[in-house]
Design a protein that fits this description.
With 259 residues, this protein is of the alpha/beta class. The protein has one domain (5-250): Alpha-Beta Barrel (TIM Barrel). The protein contains ten helices and twelve strands. It has helices at residues 32-42, 63-70, 86-94, 104-108, 111-120, 159-169, 190-199, 213-221, 232-235, 241-250; strands at residues 5-13, 16-21, 24-30, 47-51, 77-80, 99-102, 125-133, 144-148, 153-158, 173-178, 204-207, 227-230. An eight-stranded parallel barrel has the order 1-4-5-6-7-10-11-12, surrounded by six helices. Helix 8 (213-221) links the parallel strand 11 and strand 12 (227-230). Helix 8 packs across helix 10. The longest helix has 11 residues, at 32-42.
Amino acid sequence: MLSKRIIPCLDVRAGKLTKGIKFKGNVDIGDPVEMAEFYYNEGADELVFYDITASSDARAIMIDVVRRVAERIFMPFSVGGGLRNVDDMRAVLLAGAEKISVNSSAVQEPEIIRQGAEAFGAQCVVLGMDVLKVGVKPGIPSGYEVVIHGGRKPMGLDALEWAQRAESLGAGEICLNSIDADGTQDGYELTLTKLISQAVSIPVIASGGAGEPRHLAEVLTQGKAHAALIASMTHYGNYTIRQIKDYLDGQGIKVRNYW
């Protein structure tokens, strides 16, 4: 059995670590470089870095912040936000990231997934999905709709259909974020996570809603996720990575321990 991964998420706006609820009301809470190093020393398995306004502002990602983070940590590191083409992907990888995450740009130009996979390997290409529960309706048979530009623009695109198409284009992993659960600390969206996880053969990272270790256990078992993204529960010091992993280990869930 593969170990389940625990992955802190750093949302960055204007060079500052920020956090909101349901993609709204973001407040700055610290320095992303210092927080990245903190999580590395804590024993996180990977790190995700999102420049959350790069796409909506139609600007390039903050490469200088990516480079500074990469200089301080020695673990897998995924970067997303404002990556529009293979050259943008290459710049991020050369700055020190191991993976690139495409979200809004991939919805608008799906071929970027294939191009990235051909240039750097599928293992480097992560599809970020921001998803809103809208109920079953024409064009959205799963009841879940893809939204881009940081939750600002619904696309009329069915989440299940998009996940399967992205896999066929060459995505090596999916980071699945529930807008409804994001920042609430009330638990992951288990129905959505299980739906996508069982429909694709690539790993799915569950994102949105973690508030206590029990929530991670639920999404890694009931939700069938391969990994869990966390933010608020550790950003604010409510739990440590070790506490989370010790709890999961006690529940019979295999995790990597670095101590």
